[in-house]
């Protein structure tokens, strides 16, 4: 009986870990900093940073893939190559001239269901206070949790030396991490102030996490946003980094799920030597 309980507990831990990693999603450009007149391939990653896999990129998952340039918005849909047995799934920018470019992806909804304990652990780990409080108030903590979730991801690419202000402007994602200062012009402490917006408004109490991507050794951080949706992260190392945030709210009268959850990420590369 004790052996069976141990197996069940191990299975619970594996389920919780797998769910968290499956939700982790980001855009990975071939290079974050390139010379003018370059095109940049974009890959779509899911999982943990040290065991990332290629996202199952399909047309029925994509709402939009756009390039927010210094002078406007360019659609990247025509460059999308779906994932297949031979190819991982990717896209490519147009030829980019000097300036800063923000690539943004929005996905359609998917449905996820977890039994009570893994779901409670997941909402606690991600700081989903609205969902947590709702389940507490309604006496639902012993029930499975079903969520309708979607992904919003951005990556910032710097072309040449010309830094442009579009890097610090929102692009209109439902949940979005916005650098308040330019991420390729960090101060001596490599501190980056940021703001999280949810449905266009500052989001208080959101848990923003940072983690190193392949080729970097950034220390992982977790910071909560204040009443203005603001927080600051800092970096002691160079190389690519991912910022992520999750937020959700109860759904009313939806037969598919109890909650709607949004996953948002931002990637760029820290280059302190350029400061």
From TrEMBL:
Q: Where is the signal peptide?
A: 1-22
Q: What's one Pfam family here?
A: DUF4198
Keywords attached to this Swiss-Prot or TrEMBL record, sorted alphabetically, are: Signal
Q: What is this protein called?
A: DUF4198 domain-containing protein
Q: Which organism is it from?
A: Salinimonas profundi
């Amino acid at each position: 009986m004790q052996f069976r309980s141990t197996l069940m507990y191990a299975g619970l831990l594996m389920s919780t870990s797998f769910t968290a990693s499956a939700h982790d999603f980001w855009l990975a450009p071939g290079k974050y900093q390139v010379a003018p007149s370059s095109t940049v391939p974009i890959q779509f990653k899911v999982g943990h940073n040290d065991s990332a896999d290629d996202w199952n990129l399909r047309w029925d998952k994509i709402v939009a893939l756009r390039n927010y340039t210094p002078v406007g918005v360019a659609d990247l849909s025509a460059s999308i190559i779906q994932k297949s047995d031979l190819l991982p799934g990717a896209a490519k920018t147009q030829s980019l001239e000097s300036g800063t470019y923000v690539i943004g992806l929005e996905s359609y909804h998917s449905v996820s269901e977890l039994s009570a304990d893994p779901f409670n652990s997941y909402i606690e780990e991600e700081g989903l206070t609205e969902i947590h409080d709702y389940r507490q108030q309604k006496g639902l903590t012993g029930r499975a949790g079903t969520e309708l979730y979607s992904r919003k991801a951005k990556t910032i690419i710097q072309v040449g030396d010309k830094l442009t202000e579009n890097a610090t402007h929102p692009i209109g994602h439902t949940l979005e991490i916005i650098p308040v200062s330019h991420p390729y012009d960090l101060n001596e402490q490599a501190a980056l102030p940021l703001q999280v917006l949810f449905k266009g408004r500052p989001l208080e109490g959101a848990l923003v996490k940072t983690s190193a991507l392949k080729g970097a050794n950034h220390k992982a951080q977790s910071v909560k946003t204040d009443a203005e949706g603001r927080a600051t992260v800092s970096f002691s190392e160079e190389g690519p980094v991912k910022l992520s945030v999750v937020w959700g709210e109860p759904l009313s009268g939806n037969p598919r799920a109890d909650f709607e959850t949004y996953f948002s990420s931002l990637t760029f590369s820290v280059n302190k030597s350029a400061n």
